[in-house]
Amino acid sequence: MNSKNFTTVITVERTAGDAFDAIKNFKAWWSEDIEGSAHAIGDVFFYHYKDIHLCSVKLITESPLERLVYWIMENQFSFTKDKSEWTNTKLIFDLHQDENNTKIVFTHEGLTPDYECYDICVEAWTNYIQNSLHKLLTTGEGEPNPRDKEGFNAAIANKWRIRASIRQDMTSGQ
Question: Which residue, among 110, 102, 122, has the nearest Cα to 10 in the 3D structure?
Answer without folding.
Answer: 102
